[in-house]
User: What shape does this take?
Amino acid sequence: MKAVNKISTVILAATLMFGLSVPTPALAAATPSLGAAATYGVLSSTYTNTTVTTINGDVGFTTPPAVAPLGTHPNYGSGASYSTAGLDQGTTLSALASQTCTFSFASGAIDLATDTTHGPIGVYTPGVYCVTGAMSVGTGGITLSGNGTYIFRSTGALNTVANSHVTLDGASSCDVFWTPIATTLGANSTFIGTVIDDAGITVGSTVTWLGRALAFGGTVTTDTNTITIPTCVVPPPPPPPCECTNQVIETMVSDLTTTVVGDSPAVIAVHPAWTASIPGSTWIWKSGATANNEVVAFEKNFTVVGTVLSAQLDIATDNSYEVFIDGVPVAGNVNDVNFTLATQDIYNLTANVTPGNHTLRIEVKNVGTYSVGSNPAGLLYKFEVKTCPDKCCGGSVTVTNNNVATVTNNENTQASTGSNSAGGSNAGNGGNGGSISGSGNGNNTGHGGRGGGGGTGGVVITGNANANSRVLNKVNTNITRVRR
Assistant: This one.
């Protein structure tokens, strides 16, 4: 704590009344959706180009350039997606403007390449950087270091000097945004990120740009440039909320078990000016000597099992601080007065916590010359992670199939016939009597021959016919048991 912060109750009350020292919690920056504007390398009302420029991405305009750009742009001009892209550009700009400043520069023009008030010269970590005035990138250039979202917001112009560069070190061009008022990129420079600026965007000669020039209501001017839109993977939608009746809550607090990096164990610290209150937590500091303006790091390891429902950090420090999970910045406050009930901060870090092993690291800076009585230093925090066990939230599923059904079919067939008879043929007729030739009266004719016997009747064999059949069918019937 700086000595100037040990102020009387009257001065403190006046300060709080005018809102000069009550910081708005610095939430981690978030990348908004660009909607239909995401596919545009240039989006403008008027597009000006008179040289050989290559744009790999859609090109939107109502007033065309004298020389059409090379490259791949499925949407060119003011086709179906043009108006939608313009609306989505406005929505994105509003989302960027609504995010709380992680760091606010002093009023006036700022050269991002030489500034040291935000941290190491030329190096920026994820966050929302706010400039009241113009901002520029000087010859030394800047490096965006670490995975996360970068938002550079200015009330004035953005200018990059010739041969300057913006480079990435663990960051993604998909997550870099600039929202100035009038943009000019210097010749032979390298630039990263999406610029949203309806006041107009002018790109100097031979600039290589990985990003987008979005000025739906203004003019974009290019000159022998190469603009390529980032290739960004759209994350899947979050799963539906877990309905869990047996939540697991893991709570980490500032206490004597907190590790002080490079020092002996933490000790309890107290001071009457520290009015911040976090139940279950205790103000702590390092036990060894504290150097002037020293940054002290505190760590705790934790393991997350199951589905993360929420993760909340409550924190108060004397003086400024920055919070990391596994080395990635997730929260911070550069103000000096973070130790009162009115200025302690709360962060929703649910998106920053996943199943697995993690390290929570909090770096606290004591501004000025350390003194237990007049300029002490301390940390007070609670980090609470709520999870749902796998079995409760659709974790492991065991499926068992049993094929057990057998079907037997019996077929019986019977045919019955009646009795039939068949008669033989009729007997033959007898032969005619023989004739006698001669004279005399006593002659008689001979008797006729015996008739032939009748034919034997036909034989028909009849009876009852029976046919039996048995068919055995095996049918696969799945019986599924689901066990969570």
In short: The CA atoms of residues 34 and 92 lie 6 Å apart.
